[in-house]
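Support request, priority: normal
Reporter: lab tech (M.K.)
Component: structure prediction queue

Hi team, I submitted a job for Universal stress protein UspA from Spirosoma montaniterrae yesterday, and the status page still shows it as pending. I've pasted the exact input below so you can check whether something in the sequence is tripping the parser. The sequence length should be 242 residues. Please let me know if I need to resubmit or if it's stuck on your end.
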Amino acid sequence: MTNLLFPTDFSTNATHALNWARLFARKTGATITLLHVYQPILPDTTLPTIGDPGLGVTASLEVERIGQERLEQVATSLQHEGLSVQTDWRIGSVEDEILDVARLLPADLIVMGRSDLSTFFDRLAGSAVTDVADGSPCPVLIVPTPAEGEPMKPAQIRTVAYAMQSRTTRDDVMTQTDSIVDAFDAHRIYLTEDQLERPAADMIVLELYPQGGFLDSLLHPNRAAALIEKSDVPVLVYHQPK
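Reply from support: The job had stalled in the queue. We restarted it manually and it finished. Here are the results:
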């Protein structure tokens, strides 16, 4: 592994996921690219303006400046830990910019935090995570954030669980987990669909297969893919191109 992409919005979700980015970077020697995407809120020009219209522009520039400073602070902290780090700042659609950077690097792994999708804004963030997992040119590690009041689990890989599906082959499993098992001296287990609820593992690996359409998703719901939004342990997603 050479390039690890870590998109951050500086939230609790990102803080927990950063521990997993550290873990993989230390084990593989990969360079972490810290990415922050600023998605400006466009003003509604049909509404009357009250006061100085330039105030909104000034506030937007201040948010950008603060975000850039925080990005550099995180980078400096990781560099002091001995990790190789670079930064990237983008303005635009979060998922589009993440995928663009992933292709340009090119990234070997994207690490992203995921909330419990309990609020409107959490659901927006969750949508970005699933969109990235669906369109990524490389594997995506999706790290859940502990529920409020629950302790943060350590970033460690002792047991890797592979979520078996009807189309999964032995070659898929070996290709997607051998390097992890070897690097972390981990134990590998296999999960059938009825074992997905609470697996005794530190990380789940699965391949995301494209659905044939709305009818296919109704007749053949993918319980493994649903782990992206509900698993309480990190999920490493391999995306099969459509």
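The CA atoms of residues 117 and 124 lie 8 Å apart. The domain at 154-241 is CATH 3.40.50.1370 (Rossmann fold). Let us know if anything else looks off. Ticket resolved.
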